[in-house]
Amino acid sequence: MKKVITYGTFDLLHIGHIRILERAKQLGDHLTVAVSTDEFNASKGKKAYYSFEHRKAILEAIKYVDEVIPEATWDQKIENIVHLNIDVFVMGDDWEGKFDYLKEYCEVLYLPRTEYISTTTIKNDLGRNNI
Ligand code: C2G
User: How many helices (H) and strands (E) does the chain have?
Assistant: First the structure.
């Protein structure tokens, strides 16, 4: 069984998130998503609108997702990849090159981001009543 993993906050779920999850699943047979905890988000300078529990439950409801684990630190990736027997690590290409150190443990792929949508854009548009 070919196992894939990806990481992220996945707040205010949108088509860009769905498309990265869809493509990640197409790369193997099993997709694990490591979703950022609220505390880890704070360390990323992010405050998600939805709590960790809600973001986790929403991801678990997506047909492409087989397993959701917490992402609590930047440096848990190697342990996750080794412990979960991951074959492919996938991220959007806004992270291009940032995780190349994982190449000694698994395949590392950066996929093109979906253009013109982001959680930040959604928040800004809603804030300006641009809906
Ligand atoms: N993404 C995308 N297209 C968008 C928006 C996001 O492909 N329009 C992808 C990102 O590239 C990322 C994933 O969706 O691979 C999740 O994005 P975020 O929730 O913004 O995650 P991020 O804050 O980048 O956290 O350790 C890695 C970090 O946890 C990544």
Answer: 5, 5
Q: Is 48 in the pocket of ligand 1 (CB under 6 A)?
A: no
- Ligand 1 atom closest to Cα of 19? 7
Instruction: Give the residue, out of 91, 93, 123, with the most ligand 1 atoms within 8 A of its beta carbon, to mutate for a pocket test.
Output: 91
Contact between residue 38 and residue 98 where contact means Cβ atoms under 8 Å apart? no
Q: Quote the ligand 1 centre to 92 CA distance (angstroms).
A: 6
* Tens-place pLDDT, residues 17-39: 999 999 999 999 999 999 999 99
Quick one: residue 101, left, alpha or beta (phi over 0 = left, psi -120 to 50 = alpha)? alpha
Does the pLDDT of residue 129 top 90, yes or no? no
The C-alpha R_g of the chain, in whole angstroms, comes to 14
17 lines ligand 1 (CB under 6 A): yes
